[in-house]
Design a protein that fits this description.
The complex is a heterodimer of chains A (about 375) and B (about 375).
Chain A (H helix, E strand, L loop, with lengths): L1 H16 L2 H21 L7 E7 L4 H11 L4 E5 L7 H6 L5 E5 L3 H6 L4 E8 L3 H25 L6 E8 L6 H23 L1 H8 L1 H7 L4 H29 L9 H25 L3 H17 L12 H6 L4 H15 L3 H28 L3
Parallel strand pairs in A: 1-2, 1-3
Antiparallel strand pairs in A: 3-4
Helix pairs in contact in A: 1-10, 2-7, 2-10, 7-10, 7-11, 7-12, 7-14, 10-11, 10-15, 11-12, 11-14, 11-15, 14-15
Chain B lengths: L2 H20 L1 H21 L7 E7 L4 H11 L4 E6 L2 H9 L5 E5 L3 H5 L5 E8 L3 H26 L7 E8 L6 H22 L2 H8 L1 H6 L5 H29 L9 H26 L2 H18 L12 H7 L3 H14 L4 H25 L6
Parallel strand pairs in B: 1-2, 1-3
Antiparallel strand pairs in B: 3-4
The chains are: A alpha/beta (about 375), B alpha/beta (about 375).
Chain lengths: ~375, ~375
C-alpha cells in the first residue's frame, strides 16, 4: 500500500512543481506576502496627519501642543487660524484630526478650572478614529498628571497599568503569528482544492479510478505533498517572524508543530473535499474562495471573535483557523504549555477527519 | 469598425452571454456571493468590544472597594468576575477566560485617605494589543469618573485640568459597521471581478477553443470586448445588490450621489475585470490563473487597502505598494461617498487613479492577447 501512496505522492509533487509558473506561485507569494503584510498589518498609528487650531496665546496650550507634535504617532500638517479652514482639511483627508484650543484655555487652567480642548476626528475609518482618541486621552492624562503634581494636588487613586506578554502593546506581535495561520491556510487550499478537479477536467481521474488504488490511498497521496509543502513554508514563516520581525517565541516548538500539523490536516481535508465536489477547476477555485474568505475574516485574525453576535460565535466553531490562531498566539506570546491549549487541538482533528471521510466517500461515488 | 466587426462582436457577445447564463456558477458568483459575504461580514466583523470579561480582585472588601466595583458591573463594556485573591485571577488571565485584572490591595481604603493616594493595579493580557488598548481606555474612563465623584462627595474638587471634548465627524457614534460595510463592498467587488474573469481566457486555451477562435476573422480586441461586457453587466448588478443591502439591511448612511457612485463603481469594475483578464491571458492555465487570482486579490484587498489597517501608518515601502492596488482607491471613494458625501477633492483623484488602472489592465490584456500559437 505504501509503495502505491509513495508513487502517487511523487506524481503529485511533479504535477505541482514541474511547471515553473505553478512552482513559483506555490512557493514565492507566501513569503513575499509575509514581509509585506507583516509591515502593513498593524493597529498602531504612526505619523497621523493632524492640525492644530490654537487660539490661546498662553504657555499651557503650547505645552499641550508640544506633547502632540513630539509624539511619533502624530505629524503636524497644518495650523489653521479660523473655523472656516478646519472643515476643508478634514473633508479632503489632509488631516485625520484637528485639535482646537479655545482662547481662554491657559487662563482657565491657571484659575484652577478645567480647560476644554475640542478634538475633531475623521470617523470615515472608525477604527482608526477610536485608536486615535485613545492616544489623545493618554496624552491628555499625562498632561493632567504633570499639571496636578506641579500644583501639588494628587488624585486619591492612581491607575497603574501593566500589560502581560506584550509590554509595549505592539499589535504586530499579535498580527504576525496570525499571518502564519493565514498563509498556511492559503498554501494548503491552493495545493489541494484544484487537484482532483484538474484530474477530472483532464480525464486522468478515470484512469485513477481503474487503478487498484483504494480511496484512502488516493487521499493520502493527495494530502501528503500538501502537508510537506505546508510544513516547509510554515517553518520558513516562523523563522522570518522570529528573526526578522522579532516576535518572541516563548513556548515550545512541539506544541506549535502539533497545532500546525492538525491545522494543515484540517485545511487540506477541506481543500480535498472542495476538490472532490467540484466538477471544473472554476468551481474548485470558487469553493476555495468561499471557504477561505470567511474563515479568515471570522477567525479572530483582525477582529476578536468575542465582539461578534453570539450566533456568529457559534458559527466560528467549525472554523479550524480559529483554533490554530489561539494555539500560535498562545505559544508565541504567552509561552503556553500544551495543557492550557489542549482544548484547541481536538476540534481541528475532528474537522479534518469528518472532511476526509466525506471526501473519500465522494471520490468513490462521483464519476463524471 | 465596419459592419462586419459589429456583426462579429454581436455573435461573440451572444455566445459569451449564453455561456454566462447557462453556467450557474457565474450567476451564483455575481448574486449569491455578495449576499453571503455581506451577511457574514456585516454581522461577523466588529471592532466594538463589549462585555469584556475582567477579574476584579478585592483583597479587603469595604464601602470604598464596593463603590468602585459597582462601577464595573454598571457598564455594558465589562462583564466583571469578582475574586478574592490574585492566584486565581492570574490563572484566569493566562487561560484567557478574562482579558484583564483590576487589583485592589488590602490597604486600598486606608491609602485612599492619605495624600499620596492608593494604587489601582490593572493587568491586561497584551496578546491582542488592540483589545488591550480598548480595555485600558475603558478602565481609565471608569477610574476617572469614580475619583471625580469621590472628590464631589468629600467636597474637595478633584477637577481634571484638561477635559477632552471629542467630535467624530461623519460617524459620530463610531459605529464600526458604518465604515466596514463600504469597505466590504469594495473587497467583495474585488473578489467578484477577479473570480468572474480570471479563468475565462485560460479556459479557452486549455479547452482548445482558443485555436478555433484564432482561425475565425474575429480580432483579439473583439474577443476581449466580448468577454468583458457580460461580466461587466453582472458586476454592476452585484454592486447594486451590495449597496442596497448596505443601505437597507445594515442601515449605513449614504450621503453621496448615486450617479457618482455608479461612475466610480463602473471604473473600478473595469479595473478589476481587466486585472482578472490580464491574469487569465498571461497564465493560459486555469490552475496558475486561479492561484494568482487568489493571491493577488483577496489578501491585498483585505490587508493593504486601508479597509482595516490605516495606510498612513505603514512604512513608506508598503505605502508605495498600496498605491498600485486599485482596491485602495475604491475603498477610500466608497467610505467618503457613504459617510461624507461628494467630496470632490477625494473622489476625483481616486476616480482618475481607477481610470488609469482600467486602461492599463485592459490595454495590457489587449497587447498580450496575440493571434499566435506558441
Amino acid at each position: 500500500m505504501w509503495r502505491r501512496v509513495y508513487a502517487l505522492m511523487i506524481k503529485e509533487f511533479l504535477a505541482l512543481l514541474k511547471d515553473r509558473r505553478s512552482r513559483v506561485v506555490v512557493i514565492v507569494p507566501p513569503l513575499v506576502q509575509l514581509l509585506v503584510f507583516g509591515y502593513a498589518a498593524t493597529f498602531d498609528l504612526n505619523r497621523v496627519p493632524f492640525a492644530v487650531y490654537n487660539e490661546d496665546p498662553g504657555l499651557a496650550s503650547r505645552d499641550l501642543v508640544a506633547r502632540f507634535t513630539g509624539a511619533a504617532a502624530f505629524h503636524l500638517v497644518a495650523a489653521p487660524s479660523s473655523d472656516a479652514e478646519v472643515a476643508p482639511l478634514v473633508d479632503s483627508q489632509r488631516a485625520l484630526m484637528v485639535l482646537h484650543i479655545g482662547p481662554q484655555f491657559s487662563r482657565e487652567l491657571a484659575a484652577g478650572r478645567p480647560g476644554a480642548v475640542q478634538v475633531i476626528v475623521d470617523g470615515r475609518n472608525s477604527n482608526t478614529a477610536a485608536i486615535l482618541l485613545g492616544y489623545v486621552s493618554t496624552i491628555a492624562a499625562d498632561f493632567n498628571a504633570d499639571w496636578l503634581s506641579r500644583s501639588g494636588a494628587a488624585p486619591p487613586a492612581q491607575l497603574e497599568v501593566r500589560a502581560w506578554f506584550n509590554p509595549n502593546l505592539e499589535s504586530r506581535w499579535f498580527l504576525v503569528p496570525g499571518i502564519l495561520g493565514l498563509l498556511t491556510l492559503l498554501v494548503a487550499l491552493l495545493v489541494t482544492a484544484l487537484s482532483v478537479a484538474r484530474e477530472r477536467e483532464q480525464g486522468t481521474f478515470d484512469q485513477l479510478l481503474v487503478t487498484p488504488y483504494r480511496p484512502v490511498e488516493v487521499l493520502l497521496g493527495k494530502t501528503l505533498p500538501g502537508l510537506l509543502i505546508g510544513l516547509g513554508e510554515a517553518t520558513a514563516i516562523v523563522l522570518l517572524a522570529t528573526l526578522w520581525f522579532q516576535v518572541p517565541l516563548r513556548g515550545d516548538l512541539v506544541t506549535l508543530y502539533a497545532g500546525l500539523f492538525l491545522f494543515l490536516f484540517s485545511a487540506l481535508s477541506v481543500g480535498l473535499m472542495i476538490s472532490s465536489v467540484a466538477v471544473t477547476q472554476q468551481q474548485g477555485l470558487l469553493g476555495a474562495f468561499l471557504f477561505m474568505v470567511p474563515s479568515v475574516m471570522l477567525s479572530g485574525f483582525a477582529t476578536p471573535i468575542a465582539n461578534m453576535p453570539v450566533w456568529m460565535q457559534h458559527v466560528t466553531l467549525i472554523n479550524p483557523m480559529r483554533y490554530f490562531l489561539v494555539i500560535i498566539r498562545g505559544v508565541f506570546l504567552q509561552g503556553a504549555p500544551f495543557g492550557v491549549l489542549a482544548s484547541q487541538f481536538w476540534p481541528m482533528a475532528v474537522i479534518g477527519l469528518v472532511n476526509m471521510t466525506v471526501a473519500g466517500f465522494l471520490f468513490r461515488r462521483r464519476l463524471y | 469598425m465596419n459592419a462586419g466587426s459589429g456583426m462579429r462582436l454581436r455573435g461573440l457577445l451572444r455566445k459569451e452571454l449564453y455561456q454566462v447564463l447557462r453556467d450557474p456558477s457565474s450567476v451564483a458568483i455575481a448574486f449569491l456571493l455578495p449576499v453571503f459575504l455581506l451577511l457574514i461580514f456585516g454581522y461577523g466583523i466588529s471592532l466594538d468590544a463589549e462585555h469584556v470579561p475582567v477579574a476584579v480582585v478585592i483583597e479587603q472588601p469595604d464601602a470604598d472597594t464596593a463603590s468602585l466595583a459597582g462601577r464595573f458591573s454598571g457598564t455594558s463594556y465589562f462583564a466583571p468576575v469578582f475574586m478574592g485573591d490574585m492566584v486565581r485571577a492570574e490563572a484566569a488571565l493566562r487561560d484567557r477566560s478574562v482579558n484583564a485584572i483590576v487589583h485592589l490591595q488590602q490597604d486600598f481604603s486606608k491609602r485612599l485617605r492619605r495624600p499620596d493616594g492608593a494604587p489601582i493595579q490593572l493587568i491586561v493580557n497584551g496578546t491582542d494589543a488592540n483589545t488591550a488598548r480598548l480595555v485600558i481606555g475603558y478602565v481609565q474612563g471608569v477610574w476617572q469618573k469614580w475619583i471625580e465623584e469621590l472628590g464631589d462627595e468629600s467636597g474637595v474638587s478633584a477637577a481634571v485640568p484638561v477635559s477632552i471634548e471629542q467630535r467624530v465627524w461623519f460617524n459620530s457614534e463610531l459605529r464600526s459597521r458604518n465604515y466596514l460595510v463600504p469597505g466590504l463592498i469594495a473587497i467583495i467587488m474585488t473578489l467578484i471581478g477577479a473570480l468572474l474573469t480570471a479563468l475565462v481566457m485560460a479556459r479557452e486555451w486549455e479547452r482548445g477553443t482558443m485555436e478555433a477562435l484564432l482561425v475565425t476573422p474575429v480580432t483579439m480586441g473583439e474577443v476581449l470586448v466580448g468577454k468583458l461586457v457580460p461580466y461587466f453587466l453582472l458586476g454592476l448588478g452585484s454592486m447594486a445588490l451590495s449597496v442596497a443591502m448596505g443601505l437597507w439591511l445594515f442601515r449605513v448612511p449614504f450621503l453621496g450621489s448615486v450617479w457618482v457612485l455608479s461612475c466610480v463603481s463602473a471604473l473600478y469594475l473595469l479595473a478589476a475585470l481587466g486585472m482578472g483578464l490580464l491574469i487569465s491571458t498571461l497564465a493560459r492555465n486555469q490552475f496558475v490563473a486561479g492561484m494568482v487570482a487568489i493571491v493577488a486579490t483577496f489578501l491585498p484587498a483585505f490587508l493593504l487597502s486601508g479597509f482595516i489597517f490605516d495606510i498612513g501608518s505603514m512604512p513608506a515601502v508598503v505605502q508605495a505598494i498600496t498605491r498600485v492596488l486599485p482596491a485602495r482607491y475604491f475603498v477610500s471613494s466608497l467610505q467618503t461617498l457613504f459617510l461624507a458625501g461628494n467630496v470632490w477633492s477625494v473622489i476625483l483623484p481616486n476616480a482618475a487613479a481607477l481610470a488609469v488602472f482600467a486602461i492599463l489592465f485592459l490595454g495590457a490584456s489587449r497587447r498580450m492577447l496575440r493571434k499566435r500559437l506558441d
